[in-house]
Amino acid sequence: MRRLAAVSWIALPLAGALVLSGCSSAKSTSDDLQIVANPIAARPAVSPAVTVRPAGQVLGTGSVSAVAVDAKTATLVVAVPEPPSLRLYDLNALASPPVNMPLYGKVSRLTVTPGRVEIAEPDQGVVQQLTLPDRKLTETKTGGQPASSIVYGADRLVAMGAGKDIRVLPAAGPARTIGGQLYSADDVVDTGDGVVVLDRLRTAVFSVDLAAGKVDEGLRAGDGAANAVADSYGRVLVTDARAGALLAFSASPLIMRQRYPVPGGAYGIAYDATRSLAWVTLTARNEVVGFDVRGGEPVEKYRFPTVRQPDSVGVDEKSGRVIVGSAAGEGTQVIQP
Which InterPro entries did the record assign (predicted)? Predict the structure, then answer.
């Protein structure tokens, strides 16, 4: 795996970049990571009406809750909330009607391992797995409110949202739970150099020791950590929706490496490993921006107008096409940079 030097270019104040190690135990009287008495998870900035024609092409209409691309099978997967379902598009024939697959409930997150898509449906307490190209759905009832699921070797790791823990689902045998220190487990990310969990309520990230079965140290992730993705350098990239920033953390050890200002309501994020581009949606501006993250600080390479309320974004690493989902009923946008 390619690794960056331990660069630490910081453009914003580091108040809040504090390490937590067990300070949320019963004996603790303070919490360095909690920024308000009653924390509320960051939400995307409300988008204005579109005044510039969205770049590329727009597929259909309706609201989108998540998007993902399986480059192995050239499949675009779009989750729509009403009715809860998936729309599967052939990336080589986008003009063709999509295949529709009904789901149990609204999707909070889609994550892809080549040929497999993990589908978290929190309101129904279910995680489903879609295999491609055979389009077979397999469900796992987790209970609670699973917010995100990833494939991790032979296991699956499920971030259990308000359950405040990570569920480890092995291919065979009983599941186990890893908890501690979390207020909410909203996403789990495999960086290739360690597993990190995103906690939106504490606006923080924590490293997870799977072998020991515990949540390790944590760091504040800005003022409103929203979404996270792994890059090619053993890091997790996080959008800060409240302060308007793109953060980068190494996973082993957990250290903030970069904090770069991104005004305009930074929210959704996707990563193109082929081109080392992080795509960030700006919901307050109806834009998506592509940053080259290979160097000591992100470098803007692309900026495109989007559909209204671009809460979700994905990327086809084969072609470089960027997929943006509108949470305001304006469909799915496909952009070729």
Answer: WD40/YVTN_repeat-like_dom_sf
